[in-house]
Structures are given as structure tokens and as C-alpha cells.
């Protein structure tokens, strides 16, 4: 039997707008609104992809949920986690535990700390150490990796360390911000299948990417972001068939996917 909880997204973002005030020369004030009226949900056991061009506001959305926007950002709108309002205080308590971010750049690793200490996050108990070893193992990283410093890791290893550090505490919401660029196709697919597995284990996964093809293959739902707003939210299948896409930008994205142009021409004939 389904309960009301089944229908309630784990994360709900409603009408989120982010503004920045910038001061130019002569105290001239300029207001930017790189995110406008974004409404988005992430369900338990589902992978929701947010797809959009560079600069469309994907990372800002992730950072707003994580509560790590720069100090000069003004945030309007509402966010809920597990039915309750997600305010600054609650984000602080949930971050790194129930809500985890796999950040966009590997530069988020602390260059002065070895992998083991980054994953322990200040907790040196044997229980924590065991969890860290397990998380590393999950991504094919040996116990020895814990002794390495970020500069000793290859790009692919660093990404796996970021993934491992996000899942040490078995979070309920995982936000992966562009986890695949720069990775060989095989590794990229592996990273996505790991994320997929986390969602199958019950987590809500928010996958941020500009790789629509990969998103269409792995995600359940796709939200298309264009210039700071979400212009379309569809089942991932829509990007395999092209049916049910209503916004010109998502149609253009669909047409640009490998093989689709030819497919459309074939249909036209
Ligand atoms: N601190 C800031 N002050 C002013 N503008 C900002 C700030 N941070 C981001 N922006 C602007 O917000 C917009 C969205 O940025 P964001 O990093 O979210 O894009 P993105 O979709 O993640 O891009 P990418 O795919 O390149 O990672 C950009 O135009 C960016 O210049
Ligand atoms: Mg980004």
C-alpha cells in the first residue's frame, strides 16, 4: 500500500530565485538573478538529472540546497527536505550526513590532508575508519589510498575519492555536480552506474550534467535548465523518443543528440 510519504519528494525546491548584488565603479549597484523561480523535486529511489548549458545555474541550485552559496547571494523561495523546511540551521545539521554533495571540481579536496583524513572528517573512531575503508572499497580504491595526498591522485582517482567521501555516511540525498567530465567514457559510465545503484538502494540522487545522452541513459527524470530557469521536466524516456518535449530548447537539445538528426530525417521521409 502506498502512503502519503511515497508521494512526497525527499527534496522539494519551490520558486527558488538567487540574486547577487554587485558593486561596480563609483558605487554603482548591479543586480544579477542567475536563478529564477526554480521548482524541482527529487524523489527517494529515483535519479533526477538537471541538464543545461554552462552558466545556466546548475551549480548555484546545488549550492543553494547545500547551503554553501557565497555570502552576497540573496535567496528567495522555499526548500523542503523530508517534509520539513530546509532552513540554514537544518542544512547545517544535515550536510555531509543526510545530504551529500559530490562537487564539480576535484579542487574541493583539501591539498594538505591525505585521503584518509578527508574522509574521516575529524572523526578518528574505529567505526568511522571502517566506514571510510568500506566507502573507498566501493569505488575500487584500496586501503593504501588513504595515505595519499590529492596531488598524488590521478583525475579519475580524485573523482572516486570525492564519490567515496560523499557516501561514507549513507546520505539520503546525493547531489552530484558534473561527476563525469574529463573521464574516459568507460569510467564515466561506471560513475553513473554507481550513482544509479545508490538511487536503487533508496537514495534520492540529483545528477547535474550537461551530458544529455548520459542522463537520458541513466536518469529516471530530466529537468532542463535554460538561463536560470527550468523550462521542462520530463521522464528520461522523452529524450529517447523525442515525444512529449514541449520547449524549443529541449527539442533543440534532443535534435543535437548523436543519431537523432538522422532519425528525424528518416521519419520525415
Ligand atoms: N558568486 C557569484 N556572483 C555573481 N554571479 C555568479 C556567482 N556565482 C555564479 N554566478 C553566475 O551564475 C550563473 C550560473 O552559474 P553556475 O555556476 O550555477 O552555472 P552552471 O550551470 O553550473 O555552469 P557549468 O556547467 O559551467 O558548471 C553564471 O552566469 C555565473 O556567472
Ligand atoms: Mg556548474
Can you walk me through this structure?
With 269 residues, the protein is of the alpha/beta class. It has a domain of 174 residues: Rossmann fold (3-Layer(aba) Sandwich). 36% of the residues lie in helices and 27% in strands. A six-stranded mixed β-sheet has the order 6-7-8-3-9-10, sandwiched between helices. A four-stranded antiparallel β-sheet has the order 2-1-4-5, with helices on one face. The longest helix has 16 residues. It is globular.
Provide the spatial order of strands within the biggest beta sheet. 6-7-8-3-9-10
User: Order of helices and strands, N to C?
Assistant: HEEEHEEHEHHHEHEHEEHHH
Query: What are the bound molecules?
Result: adenosine-5'-triphosphate, magnesium ion
State the CATH superfamily name of the domain at 42-68 and 92-238.
P-loop containing nucleotide triphosphate hydrolases
Mean pLDDT across every amino acid position = 89
Silhouette: globular
| Number of separate strands | 10
Largest sheet: 6 strands, mixed
Total helices: the number is 11
CATH architecture of the domain at 42-68 and 92-238: 3-Layer(aba) Sandwich
Helix amount: 25-40%
- Compute the separation of the termini in Å: 48 Å
CATH topology title of the domain at 42-68 and 92-238: Rossmann fold
Q: Which structural class matches the secondary elements?
A: alpha/beta
> What is the radius of gyration?
20 Å
Q: In the CATH hierarchy, what is the class of the domain at 42-68 and 92-238?
A: Alpha Beta
| SS strand fraction | 25-35%
Amino acid at each position: 500500500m502506498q502512503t502519503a510519504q511515497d508521494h512526497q519528494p525527499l527534496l522539494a525546491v519551490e520558486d527558488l530565485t538567487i540574486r547577487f548584488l554587485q558593486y561596480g565603479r563609483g558605487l554603482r549597484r548591479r543586480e544579477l538573478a542567475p536563478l529564477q523561480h526554480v521548482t524541482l523535486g527529487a524523489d527517494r529511489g529515483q535519479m533526477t538529472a538537471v541538464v543545461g548549458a554552462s552558466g545556466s545555474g546548475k551549480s548555484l541550485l546545488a549550492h543553494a540546497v547545500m547551503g554553501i552559496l557565497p555570502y552576497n547571494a540573496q535567496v528567495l523561495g522555499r526548500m523542503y527536505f523530508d517534509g520539513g523546511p530546509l532552513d540554514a540551521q537544518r542544512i547545517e545539521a544535515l550536510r555531509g550526513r543526510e545530504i551529500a554533495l559530490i562537487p564539480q571540481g576535484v579542487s574541493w579536496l583539501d591539498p594538505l590532508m591525505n585521503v584518509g583524513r578527508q574522509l574521516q572528517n575529524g572523526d578518528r573512531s574505529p567505526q568511522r575508519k571502517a566506514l571510510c575503508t568500506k566507502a573507498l572499497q566501493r569505488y575500487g580504491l584500496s586501503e593504501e589510498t588513504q595515505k595519499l595526498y590529492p596531488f598524488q591522485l590521478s583525475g579519475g582517482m580524485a573523482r572516486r575519492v570525492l564519490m567515496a567521501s560523499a557516501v561514507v555516511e549513507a546520505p539520503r540525498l546525493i547531489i552530484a555536480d558534473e561527476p563525469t567530465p574529463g573521464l574516459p567514457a568507460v569510467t564515466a559510465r561506471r560513475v553513473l552506474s554507481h550513482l544509479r545503484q545508490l538511487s536503487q538502494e533508496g537514495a534520492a540522487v540529483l545528477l547535474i550534467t550537461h551530458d544529455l545522452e548520459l542522463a537520458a541513459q541513466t536518469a529516471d527524470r530530466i529537468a532542463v535548465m535554460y538561463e536560470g530557469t527550468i523550462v521542462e521536466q520530463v521522464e528520461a524516456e522523452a529524450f529517447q523518443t523525442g515525444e512529449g518535449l514541449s520547449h524549443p530548447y529541449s527539442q533543440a537539445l534532443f535534435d543535437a543528440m548523436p543519431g537523432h538528426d538522422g532519425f528525424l530525417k528518416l521519419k520525415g521521409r
